[in-house]
Amino acid sequence: MSDNVLLEMREITKTFPGVKALDRVSLRAQKGHIHAIVGENGAGKSTLMNVLSGIYPYGTYDGDIYFDGELCKFKGVRDSEGKGIVIIHQELALIPQLSVAENIFLGNERLSAKGVVDWSQTYLYADKLLRSVNLHVDPGTQVQTLGVGKQQLVEIAKALSKDVKLLILDEPTAALNDEESEKLLELILSLKQQGITSIIISHKIHEVRKVADEITILRDGSTVETLLNDSDVTEERIIRGMVGRDLSQRFPPRERDIDPTKLFEIENWSVGDEANPSRKKLENINIRVAKGEVVGIAGLMGAGRTELCKSVFGRTYGASVEGDLRLHGKQIRARTPAEAIQHSIAYVTEDRKGEGLILSQSVTTNLTLSNLERVGSNHTVNHLLELVESEKLRDEFHIKAPDLFQAVGNLSGGNQQKVMLAKWVFAEPEVLIMDEPTRGIDVGAKYEVYTLINKLALEGKHILVISSEMAELIGLCDRIYIMNEGSIIGEVSGETATQENIMAAIIQSSKE
Question: 294 has which bridge partners?
Fold first, then answer.
């Protein structure tokens, strides 16, 4: 092995019941480089990194791992961290009720000579680490008060506290807006200058092209190829390797049939902040979505987009809610999720694991849960009919699962997302609110979701989409509302819908 090779994984094979997740995958990462791993959902990216980090211990897979020239047989995460390998998962592993400093040193405490926690040194060193990742918060701040972008930086500070040599980041920008993503990528590049090697798993090809030195493409659990990230490597070239075909357009062509006389309307909508009921989280929101129309909501993290959607969907957010909802001119009451569903409103949450799915239950159970009346009668589920309907949904949404009885928690993140989308389509709603519908899924799967949204719009659904990717909103939506600090500050459509115009509106609003 070359002196410049920090990591080499040779012929890694990992099998789960009913599926071979990795089939003789090999990977080499150079010292001081940023190595990207890309592939469709279920390609084996996260599984490969879980093997490397000891989550899947030695003996549960075939193949060899060499790190810094030494054959490694990690029995757990502590073994890999002892070598300087630290993984940051897509679902952040922080404890919300603890302080930033406590999270950074959890399991790696700064102890005094008497063997008790030295809080003075803990907070002093935590402050130093936070400054190194350009996060200027008090180390005593509770993690739950921070946004996702800042929590991501806390995770990186935690990794640096462990004398990291190889930092693995699984979809590090999936939950971040464009500005936060840019800052995180700049931080990863600065860590490279400090000699830290990084492996990044990402579906955002433009980000991979920006920071990676080498790019390894996986497909169906196998290595397709590793590319040097030079001027000859285009996004189209990478996508072709990922999906096994050319993807000439990021957004499918759309046939429109919009009826402006039939509207879903949110009128004079105001919502109290749950943390501080005397403060308005949302104030005087007015939104209309025509039948057959796709309407987007743009805004930075904290603008109130998710809180708006949750408050509309059965008031699942808000200390107090004021305002009216109308569908085709008729006022509707949706004071609970059950009432919202009865009035044909569905909400695809951004938090699929915490709010969208029952991870311990089967694919079939999750797919049909939103509309049990379609698969049963007299309060009894017809399991044969449930299975037939689930098969249709699996085929329509291209859900990769060994079988329909597989627990949803065992599927890849992208396939979990597809299950959640399919679940709400099965409910046959008239209004479909989609919060970050393509978060954590690959470019090929995104195209499938966009195609589905177009199909649902043509069928006459009223569709409201939140996305942190402005390009996605521009490519997908007929109109886009712009939110900032709990209010609608503008609306763009057609040629006026550009990233520059949207950001200019947000910046101008923040100055007023």
Answer: 463
